[in-house]
Amino acid sequence: MPPNMFVTCFNAILDNRHDEHAASELSARGMPLGLMPQMSYEENETVLVAGESVLFYTDGLIEAHNSQGEMFGTPRLQDLMSERPEIGRDLSTTLMEELRRFTGEGWEQEDDITLLTLECSATQT
Q: pLDDT tens digits, residue range 20-66?
């Protein structure tokens, strides 16, 4: 890996004992991969049942600022996901539209924004 480069890895456990359509934040702490030799990391895992999904995102989404210096933030993201559970496959598009609405015209992106949605669908026999 080139000097001054790092990779962040995130694994999480999704607790399905939540209210229907509730959004929960999953987090893990640790140093970036490759930064320090022999570093240990938290490990988490999840099992999704049919109809459940998980959103993985980089901090460029929640740390984006509007013209007043306010961050988009995790609470706003959780609210959006709880209020609009029907967005399903259009989640990434919806979140980017909400981010554009929040940041306004002339916004200069400060960091990368990566969104990945994983949805568990029913299996066919």
A: 556 666 666 677 777 778 888 777 676 777 777 778 888 889 999 99
Calculate the dihedral angle through the C-alpha atoms of 113, 92, 48, 121, rounding to the nearest 10 degrees.
-140
In this structure, are residues 48 and 54 in contact, taking their beta carbons and an 8 Å threshold?
yes
Nearest to 28 by CA among 40, 45, 11: 11
Q: Count structural domains, the chain.
A: 1
Tracing tokens 């893990």 back to the chain, one arrives at: 28
End-to-end Cα, the chain, rounded Å: 44
| Residue 14 three-state SS | coil
pTM exceeds 0.70: no
Phi then psi dihedrals of residue 95, to 5 deg: -65, -40
Query: Does an H or E element contain 103, and which?
Result: helix 91-103
Residue at 95 is within a domain: yes
Residue 102 lies in a domain: yes
C-alpha–C-alpha distance, residues 125 and 123, integer Å: 7
| 74, part of any domain | yes
